[in-house]
Amino acid sequence: MAIKSINPATGKVYKTYPSLTSEEIEQRLVEGEAQYQHYRWTSFSDRSNWLQAAADYLEDHDSGLGRIMTQEMGKPLGAAIAEVKKCAWVCRHYADHGADYLADERSDVGYVRYQPLGIILAVMPWNYPLWQVFRLAAPALMAGNVVLLKHASNVPKCALSIEQVFRKAGFPDGAFQTLLIGADQTAAVIADDRVRGVSLTGSGPAGSQVAAVAGQHLKKVVLELGGSDPFIVMPSADLDAAVETAVTARLQNNGQSCIAAKRFILVDNIADEFEARLVEKYESLVVGDPMQPETDIGPLATPSILRDIHKQVHDCLIAGAKALVGGHVEKLKASLPPELELGNFYPPTILSHIPPGTPADQEEFFGPVALIFRVKDLDEAIALANSTPFGLGASGWTQDATEQQRLINEIEAGAVFINSMVKSDPRLPFGGIKQSGIGRELGRHGILEFVNAKTVCVS
């Protein structure tokens, strides 16, 4: 299978890469296992220094790495450069705190020593091509594991660039390797005895497939899957801040984020005002070339994502939903310059008056589409927020302390943010419940996912 680097704004193919052969995959597994037998005994100090060097390299090359991301998956260049800087942050965090996170835990009867497992396979998505990888790789490498990366097939240049970052930072050869392979080659790598754990960020079906193979071979997994995050606005909310944040929370990364606010749940007596303000913000957005500084929204990453979001919106409209803004692909395409006519562009869209039984009830919308629901009170808001199979993040907007505590306690999610948008932070654990995932990344919890908590008693 050929792996292509395609510009989603223009449809231009930059380069085609051949998939690795079985023999080439075996060679990388041999190299990874051999390096692990050495790397596992390196000091925390050495690993910290290499991670700091990786952070230095990322910061020194943020513009170039950002351009590669924008060229391959379409995010606005400013957001791509910010993503590179965030990768440097996670490297520095584990360089500074990893040794403390992994220090022996002593008690009256013995102690726990945390030791690496071996080769960890990272199966990563295209939407945050660097960040998703670094938030797994930084703690895994700091713990003494080695990493093999199977990246999404539409971001091969990003995948190879990440390997170069770790090589330039001074990590030993084989400590981090990129595998340019297709999805049909991944199961065999998971099944290999030398692979001791798998971390996947992606869709629910992909997570189920990986978990099934890993379970068959008794491999540890961490899964960060989809989300349909609620953004609940109560009457006491600061509407100025809520609306301003809502735009960013929904449209970050061209709307292609697991933790984007997707369902806006509004109490009736503030719904009209919030809705009107959100429409006004949406109507001012600039859709176009993601390399240009004035662009707010770039293309979706692939034609299939464009088809999926368009069908979801179409099905909602046929069922009786109302498009307050957007929803018409051809009208948007007619407004774009000729060089972008083959791009995967979708208009920023707001759907309201959504009847039950549409895709908005249970599906994740991965694109610049906001779904508005009206409720009469907090009880209804919480029930609606919990009504999907997902449980990744939630954002609640209220100045009432009692309402804040109810949202924190009763929302079924891996994270609840009050009066701010959901975001990941190297200092805090990140992950979901229900069909949004298993396990945690980031913080101390993240580095402990792929280690052996070895109990030690000495008489």
UniProtKB/TrEMBL annotation:
Pfam families, alphabetized: Aldedh
Occurrences of domain Aldehyde dehydrogenase (ranges): 3-456
Annotated GO MF terms: aldehyde dehydrogenase [NAD(P)+] activity; succinate-semialdehyde dehydrogenase (NAD+) activity
InterPro entries found in the cross-reference section: Ald_DH/histidinol_DH, Ald_DH_C, Ald_DH_CS_CYS, Ald_DH_N, Aldehyde_DH_dom, ALDH_GabD1-like, GABD/Sad-like
Keyword set includes NAD: no
Top-level division of the source organism's lineage: Bacteria
Keywords: NADP, Oxidoreductase
Gene3D superfamilies: Aldehyde Dehydrogenase, Chain A, domain 1, Aldehyde Dehydrogenase, Chain A, domain 2
Family the entry assigns: Belongs to the aldehyde dehydrogenase family.
Protein's name according to its UniProt entry: NAD-dependent succinate-semialdehyde dehydrogenase
Lineage of producing organism: Bacteria, Bacillati, Cyanobacteriota, Cyanophyceae, Nodosilineales
